[in-house]
# Entry
Amino acid sequence: MKTYIIISAFIISAFAPRLCSSQATTQILDTIYANDTKNVALFFPEPIRQGVTGADNFVFTYNREKEQYFGLLQAKPGKESNLLVINRNGSIFSYIVRYKSQLSKLNYFVPNASSIGNEKPIAKDTIKVNKVEDLVDNRTFYYTKFSSYLLERKQRIGTIQKRNDGIILSIENIVFDKEELYFVIQIENKSTLDYDLNFLNLSIETRQKGKRKSLQKLIQEPVYKYNLLSRIAEGKVVRLVYIVPKFSISNDRRLVVELNEKNGERDLTLKVSHKYINNPN
# Structure
């Protein structure tokens, strides 16, 4: 009998630290406050595949047709609840949500580290691949956020504009950030017909010297395009951002922006001096 008691005591003492450790690592969920007069935006590192709340007085909306990185939370007075969000890659995020009449924070940028887990185990041989995909998606997320910021900022680098039959093409701003140049472009349709876009290209034009003078163009392929539409309706203005790898040009070169109409002849060619390229904002 004494032997049994001693063995039982040993087993309990051996497992006690593990039990305490398990209880100590219980994750405390962050709390997000919302109300019925403002949208609280949550930006995730991956597009949202599913988002649900635990009570009817909380509503979380997101694009169910085309996966996007953000969702909007609203709340009506009532008891607190919870919000569960699952990203495209299976990452799970969970929060306590509460109603609050006065909000001090309207935007939440959610890092990968806030995930409480994944809906399916990640195999060891896919971990490296997933890390590469995370880098790509994080870069896309950054491009999207910074481009949106530039469009809201409405900063100008100068008057760089071209017109043709009611179509106005403008370079509003050129911004250098990290290793890229951001070209903020505006297309305005003052005509009575919609403008269907065939292509919008950026290229460097070099004039060859000698008896047979010629022009050479080198297309600058963008790493990302933000808010590029295929159609600009009559009377509408579209502002977009082209992101290209950083470059500089000599005074015998220039940047050429070509806007080409699909099934039409309202084409524009806008030439940008080297001084704008080499001195971005």
Q: What stands out?
A: Residues 25-121 form a domain with the Immunoglobulin-like fold (CATH 2.60.40).
